[in-house]
Amino acid sequence: MSFHVYNSLTRRLEPFVPLEPGVVRMYNCGPTVYNRPHVGNYRAFLFADTLRRWLEYRGLRVEQVMNITDVGHLTDDGDEGEDKLEKQAKKEKLDPWEISRKVAAQFFADLKALGIQPAKVYPKASDHIPEMVEIIGGLIAMGHAYEVGGNVYFDVKSFPAYGRLSGNRVEELDAGARIAVREDKRNPEDFALWKSDPAHIMKWETRFGPHGFPGWHIECSAMARKHLGDRLDIHTGGEDNIFPHHECEIAQSECFTGKPFATYWMHSKFLQVDGGKMSKSLGNTYTLDDVAARGYSPRQLRFALIRGHYRAPLNFTWDAMKDAASSLENLDDLVVRLRRAAKGEAAAEPALGAELVASARREFEAGMDEDLNVSRALPGLSALRAAVLENKLGAATAKDALDFVTAANRVLGCIAVEEELLPADIEALIERRQAARKSKDFQESDRIRDLLLAQGIVLEDTPKGVVWRRK
Asked: Which CATH architecture group holds 4-268?
């Protein structure tokens, strides 16, 4: 297979080879459902969706799992602080379970709006307590974890490979750097597998006591193993997941199973906003509703977030959204023009432009095979638009080009490839404009044209009549 990915574990581009021929087992770190995800979160989720779509384009079956963290994620990402859900529940004066259900429902609505394909399963952490307890018990029995006063910690020094993903060597970690210092730990670097707190609202009675709840990291190990088995092909997340979350996942999973956890680790870069960090205090943690309020659709946002390379910095601005919307409009226009050319509405020879179509396909596939380099893949589509504008594609090649663009959109997921029928009132307006033009009433013709444009319908007069497209 020609697909190469950048593996965060080895820090190099590698050919992708699944453990089982034809099947990919992929785990994506999903949302912590204490607050509605923002556009920064969706960069990571859209990257995972694009990855899945490209694997399927290449003929592989993808077993995709994305978790829902509804308990255990503490505010300092380590062992201390409040559970993020409980903190939000106190703020809103609601039950944390109600918060998680509300935010999860909004998350799934956002996924649908963005055209993100449903995963095989979206496991919730709170539904997998027995699986977590099983792994924790096994780690204790094997000497990789220890119990202290109802808390259970992973002994980092029992796993010599700890730090291989992030590059953080145990002996060089500063005490308290994202993993909290506690007197009951053997080593400052040890991380919590299970916590005990009578005041915690979301808690379970287990062999470790009556008031326990899981640490953040153990959840993903348990859910991945439950739904995908001991070994994964690909594990993804944002770059902030590398340490401590993914580093800790590797340690506990590999110590428990005795097998490599994931072959390939892939991480998307943070999304910047106006050249700086996204934060609630700056008021720039935009949701899909904020994007819609500025006049942009979810598919335009999708295109804006995927058209740059997932490992390259991406700066979200409203000017960038405007540019993305314009570029996507050109791709929509490409489809309209190819459809017309395929119907023989151009004067070109039927087979003219075959090499242009083949070149565009090669460029698209080469870009995507190069670690999902969407920015390298897109110029081939732009070249096709230039060719059809210059009447360089005949009917047969235009049909091939349309088939290719439709296939490419199964990866991109944002081009308007379906032929749209106009409502009767819009059709009537177009006919009235044509009648006005025929009678040389150009003032009325221009008035109707502007009226249609205000409704997002762009008209183009051609030798074979008027054609329309969505703006």
From this structure: 3-Layer(aba) Sandwich (3.40)
